[in-house]
Amino acid sequence: MTAAPNPELRDRFWESVPLEEMTAAEWEALCDGCGKCCMSKLIDDDTDEIYYTTVACPLFDAGLCRCTDYLNRQERVPDCVQLTPDNVRTIPWLPKTCAYRLLAEGKPLYQWHPLISGDPASVHAASMSMRGRVTAFEQDMAHEGEYLDHMIEEGM
Fold first, then answer.
1. Contact 38, 130 (CB under 8 A)
2. DSSP letters for 77-123
3. Which of 109, 107, 152 is nearest to 132 (CA)?
4. Is residue 50 within 8 Å of residue 154, measured between CB atoms?
5. CB burial class (10 A; 0-12, 13-18, 19+) of residue 78?
6. Distance between CA atoms of 100 and 38, rounded to whole angstroms?
7. How far apart, in Å, do the first and last CA atoms of the chain sit?
8. In whole angstroms, how far apart are CA 76 and each of 39, 60, 132, 135?
9. How many CB atoms lie within 10 A of CB 64?
10. Does residue 103 contact residue 14 with C-beta atoms inside 8 Å?
């Protein structure tokens, strides 16, 4: 299934428009729907090394790989980070496949990205999303140590 063209998006805007000059619709269209940013991360206090987990935010819909209350997510989940053109350059835990990170680093989008493929399901077909990979939700974790049982490689 190919998505219908969105009249709010300039043709191949991600190749020529700086992050700071994108419209709200263009900014939101950069999200590939992988759900990786909605998973808990562990950061080693001594080394700053980042460990990725399959533990999802309470608002994450594991089947759709989307937030169930995107508009109110920051009120409902205080540590939810809203990505902006300024902070995508400073957030170390953004996945290496994240379009925001890629563009901030001057790199192209992957062929499976929905803006390239024209198919919103291409991220799932390429096995680049968290669909079918969530093993727990934050609200089910009784102790911080339990997160260690859900660690994964970032590049998965």
1. yes
2. STTPPPP-TTGGGT-TTS-TT-HHHHHHTT-PPPTTSHHHHS-TTHH
3. 152
4. yes
5. exposed
6. 15
7. 25
8. 16, 12, 24, 22
9. 12
10. yes
Residue carrying structure tokens 């727990």: 136
pLDDT tens digit string along 37-73? 999 999 999 999 999 999 999 999 999 999 999 999 9
Q: For residues 72 and 67, what is the distance between their CA atoms, to the nearest angstrom?
A: 10
Type and span of the H or E element at 24? helix 24-29
Tokens found for residue 49: 């090394």
Q: How far apart are CA 18 and CA 71, in angstroms?
A: 24
Q: Which of 107, 111, 116, 62 is nearest to 89 (CA)?
A: 107
Structure tokens at 32: 């590939």
Nearest to 114 by CA among 156, 65, 73, 57: 65
State the amino acid at position 31 in one-letter form: C
Confirm whether pTM is higher than 0.85: yes
Q: What are phi and psi of 40, to 5 degrees?
A: -70, 145
How do residues 132-144 score in pLDDT, each as one tens digit? 999 999 999 988 8
